[in-house]
Amino acid sequence: MPSEIADHIANVSVIDTHSHLRGDYAWEGPDAPDILSDLFGWYSSSDLIVAGASLDAVARLQDGGNEDLEGRFAGVAAAWDVAQFTGYGEAVRIAARDLYEIELVSEQTIRAGQHRLQTLQRQGGCVALLRDRAKLDHVQTDLGLDVIDLPRTSAAFFLRDLSLRRFAIGAIDDPVIEAATGVTIRNLATLGQAMEALFARCAPLSIALKSQHAYVRTLAWHKRTDADAERAVRAVLGGGPGSGDPQSEARLCLGDWCLARGVELAGAYQLPIKLHTGYLANTGQLGTAMPVDRLRAGHLAPLLMEYPNARFVLMHIAYPYSDELIALAKHFGNVSVDLCWAWAINPLASKDFVRRFLHAVPMNKLFAFGDDATTPSMAYAYAVQMRRWLTRALEEEVADGFLTTRQAMDGATRLLRGNQLACFDIAGRQRAVRDATSTHERHPWPYRYDSGGSAPERCVP
């Protein structure tokens, strides 16, 4: 029988602070995943590769156009046998059992799961799965600067992060920036104008500013002068030797300058700043391309000191540098920490992180969940996984005499939604989105809303 704490955590409507969900039509339209590309289309495939599956076998596994489900799974069956007990594997098993009635994922069971998946991929099924089964209040999703087709009825459920990534890696020559802002960058002045135009267009309908530049460059930040940035603009746009390297001094200089301007603009529009820290995804596919020394959250200390009035959300518990992140949150009042994705990376480490955090930092600085998924089924699974491991963490605190049951339950509510409500202007942004959908049939950002009838012929990125 579930404990009082477990029952409470299982029924809180959770605020999901980080996702890559593309909305209803990516789930119910012609581009919808099949059972194998759903279960193994995102993080879990990396563990398969690390376990020994070939890149070709994983690519075939994820090929939804190939109807040979049994053959596709057979190529990774041996790897799955040893990878199923990781955090990623646990989430796959949760989705398979709860949603597709598969107790043991195998060649013999996968086809029956496909039929059950298709019953979930109905009109309105995406939000129903997230809101009613995963019990999510809403989703905050990072889709870069893409504009996505979305039913008008889902507008306030899928809130968008405003991506600063291209600016933060110094990629000012990326044509996506000009397309998104209408500004041709020729010098530092026009770079500033492009950033201002992006915020003017997108920030009023965004829930936060987001950057995951750690995938491309170091998190180390240095204050840059306008003169240095102007020289860097000329170097990058001039296309000289090495100017395309994200580790070049010119790109790093521009990234630092743009990150600072982004923080300032985020403040003007009252947006928290979400920053990826720690572990990188897809490392099984990237091989050795995870320079762990550059992923430490401590590299951000100069930025945190430079902008004491900004609201920073440091994501993914900076795994494996989690204690360093706790120290930052303890020292800087402008820092909150997000467990998004961390439960799936290493659920045991995340459980222990919660306990260490609560004994070092005021509990209003911790967010419990972000699904970091691309399909609602896996978002559901990650939510279930989080609730189970958070329950274990708080039950241990009670068993050890550090919390009463009531304090654990109240603390859980804070971690699952209360702290997020205090950090993000959720009601205000949802109101702004609803106003936008009522006055524009096809709004240019963040979604092309329609009346919510049926999926377009193909999902438009």
UniProtKB/TrEMBL annotation:
Residues 223-366 form the Amidohydrolase-related domain. It comes from the Bacteria. Signal peptide: none annotated. It holds the Pfam family Amidohydro_2. GO terms for molecular function: hydrolase activity. This is Amidohydrolase-related domain-containing protein.
